[in-house]
Design goal:
mainly alpha; Golgi_SNAP_su1; 261 residues; membrane; 7 helices
Length: 261
């Protein structure tokens, strides 16, 4: 009965930790969903993240307490001691399950596996929320840098203008018009380069057509004079015959030279 009571007590603490983690996730997710997020994390955000890191942190078995005490209300809201971290509670549940004299029931094994699965899901969710917060904060910093660039551009364009009540929308529109002008200049340069490339390609095409026309004319001229083809064939035949005769003569001379050596 003592083992049953200890199992139920530790499992109740594990369920309480899961409920507390869900509440912390709800608070932590609100920071990521804020439209105008601060460039730097607030104290409440840092405190919530620290609590989530501590409650989901992996604890080595040597740091486990043999009999974890019930979670006090103070521990539910402030920094948790190592014995109240969820990893430690699940390790203690596993030790209780292994120390039972009889084989553990399938229900207890299933409950322990489910607690471990929920813990892994919560760790994955914490990583996702951290990534979302970092992305939102980077976006906010980028927008802040753009606003500073707009202000610097405005100061450079109007160095004598120190009126703090000037319309920021007009300055932003002026900055955007300047950016659009630079983009138009870039597009004009690209159009000029493309035009030159098209002209070069067209010139290559004309040269290719000219060479093809010359080849066709030469072929047509050769076909119109019947004697040229026959003459060329006779010249080729004579060259082959002379080559055969010369090769045979050289071979006979070599044989005679070897015979009388």
């Amino acid at each position: 009965m003592a083992s049953q009571g200890s199992w139920a007590q530790v499992r109740q603490q594990a369920r309480a930790q899961e409920t507390q983690t869900e509440a912390l996730f709800h608070t932590y997710a609100q920071f990521a969903s804020t439209t105008d997020i601060d460039p730097e994390p607030s104290d409440e955000e840092q405190r919530t993240e620290e609590q989530l890191n501590e409650i989901l942190e992996k604890v080595p078995p040597s740091s486990l307490s043999p009999d974890p005490q019930p979670i006090s209300p103070i521990h539910q809201t402030n920094t948790l001691p190592p014995r109240h971290q969820r990893s430690a509670l699940l390790q203690h549940l596993a030790r209780l399950l292994d120390s039972e004299p009889t084989p553990p029931s399938a229900l207890k094994s299933t409950n322990l596996a489910r607690h471990r699965e929920i813990l892994q899901q919560h760790r994955t969710e914490l990583s996702r929320l951290k990534s979302s917060l970092a992305t939102a904060r980077d976006r906010a910093n980028l927008l802040s840098n753009v606003r500073r660039d707009i202000s610097a551009y405005r100061s450079a364009q109007n160095p004598n203008s120190q009126n703090p009540n000037s319309d920021p929308h007009a300055s932003e529109a002026e900055y955007m018009l300047g950016e659009r002008g630079r983009l138009d200049n870039s597009h004009s340069m690209m159009d000029s380069v493309l035009s030159q490339a098209y002209a070069t390609n067209e010139s290559f095409g004309l040269q290719r057509e000219t060479l093809s026309s010359i080849q066709r004319r030469i072929t047509g001229a050769a076909a119109q004079v019947p004697g040229i083809n026959g003459l060329m064939q006779r010249i080729g035949s004579k060259k082959r015959r002379d080559g055969i005769i010369l090769g045979g003569l050289i071979g006979v001379c070599c044989l005679l030279l070897l015979w009388f050596w």
